[in-house]
Amino acid sequence: MIRFENVHKSFGKHEVLKGIDAEVDKGQVMCLIGASGSGKSTMLRCVNGLEDYQSGRISIDGETVDAHSSSIHAIRTRVAMVFQRFNLFPHMTALQNVMEGPIHVLGENRDEVRARAEEHLRRVGLAEKMDFYPTALSGGQQQRVAIARALAMRPDAILLDEPTSALDPEMVGEVLSVLRDLAQERMTMLIVTHEIQFAREVADGVIFLDQGRIAEHGSAEAVLSKPTHPRTQDFLRRVTHPV
Amino acid sequence: MSPLFERIQEYLPLLVTGLWQTVAVTLLSLVLASALGLVWALMRSSGTRWLSLPARYIVEFLRGIPILVVLFYIYFVMPELGLDLTAFQAGVVGLALTYSCYIGETFRGGIEAVDRGQVEAAKSIGMRHGKMMRRIVLPQAFRIALPPYGNNMVMLLKDSSQVSVISVAELTMQGKMLASSTFDNMTVFTMVAALYLCLTIPLNILMRRVELKMGAAT
Fold first, then answer.
1. Quick check: B125 and A101 CB within 8 A?
2. What is the mean pLDDT of residues A79-87?
3. pLDDT of residue A36
């Protein structure tokens, strides 16, 4: 469904993606792991055109992603995104945040959207917090609103950029459990994460990025339990047994 | 000379007509300057060179000319080019043009201070630039820009006294005429200063209230 073909991306002279080939199938959960600076966030952000790329091709159900083409807006409505720092709209309540896209981008009926948005917020456990502004919510609650906001677009896939990295430890669980539910419902997800245990549980596939290249790529079991590449072994040793 | 109280009573009506002119000039040029300033700010933050560059040059050009020269130019030179404005109109246009730059920079500062993540979040739900500005960026930018904008308003109010040089009968002009006909400089200009304070102090209090209220809403 999401396909990378020999994708190269540079920031100025610095090449961050050096020929990425990968594919995420419909209903699949793919986790991107790797050290910081390995290019995993950039790879994710290329999928919905928040970053452009210089050569190769990224496509979604066969349609090429081009950050500079006007077709990018339609693509973004089909591929939702969840950010590390939530990025909720601070001047809107939780409910308004979730309703914003469907009403003002997709032009859907307000009453239907409202009912659906309330349902999404209930599902992520925030029935009581719908009329709260983001600043009145904890990090974990904000991130769950952000997930509800993504779901409200009824996307074909969701991109998640380190969704638990900015959270206090006690709030990581509540967000991961929402993602676990989504994985069970076969929501297509591409997740940049450092949560190795979570990846082991929910991921169908894991990609290990190292300095802009895919060093290892396979089932969660294969990459995370029996890594063959020395870099992967080293990385996993460091993140699972921090010094 | 008659007692102070009587003199104040005598001068006040004339100065109050000037005060209303000051209010009128200020409000009209504030509306125009804000609208124009918003245009400059939106052009500059559009991300397209053929919009941002002209806006930058216009702002730099206007900012480089003293307000008095702008006023003289509009009032004395424009008629020769076929644009005949009354002193009042010329004053409003001159103030509006000059202040559109300051207000534009204030708005631009607000727009640029909005978190990058907001733009990305708006884009990621498929919003186009215009709607993103309207619904996501500007509401937050206005809140950030409000304190410096309040400052711009007070400055504009005080600088409206400059239009007296092209004979707009606002507060300063009335004061000047009154002082030169009565030679009672102290009373007249003290009254003029007090009348300006009657405008600026409430304006400052109002701005502080609005800021507090806006701050509490987030």
1. yes
2. 96
3. 87
Question: For residue range B150-188, what is the model confidence (pLDDT) as tens digits?
Answer: 999 999 999 999 999 999 999 999 999 999 999 999 999
Query: What per-residue confidence (pLDDT) applies to B108?
Result: 95
Phi, psi of B208 (to 5 degrees): -65, -40
Residue B216 pLDDT > 70: no
CB contact under 8 A, A85 and B123: no
Closest chain B residue by Cα to residue A93: B218
Task: Specify the amino acid at residue A23.
Answer: E
Q: What does the pLDDT read at residue B215?
A: 67
Q: How many CB atoms lie within 10 A of CB B63?
A: 13
Window A:100-159, CB contacts with B under 8 Å: 100-101, 104-106, 133, 135, 149, 153
Which token pair is B153? 């308003």
Partner-chain residue, chosen from B118, B125, B217, that has the shortest CB–CB distance to A153: B125
What residue ranges define each of the domains in chain B, with the CATH number in brackets?
Answer: 4-217 (1.10.3720.10)
Beta-bridge mates of residue A2: A24, A60
Contact B90, B166 (CB under 8 A): yes
Radius of gyration, alpha carbons of chain B: 21
Q: For B115, which residue in chain A has the nearest alpha carbon?
A: A87
Minimal Cα–Cα distance from B142 to chain A, Å? 11
Residue B102: count of CB within 10 angstroms of its CB: 21
Contact B87/B166 with Cβ under 8 angstroms? yes
| Class of the CATH-defined domain A2-88+157-240 | alpha beta
Mean pLDDT for chain A overall: 94
- Write down the pLDDT at residue A111: 96
Confidence (pLDDT) at B72? 96
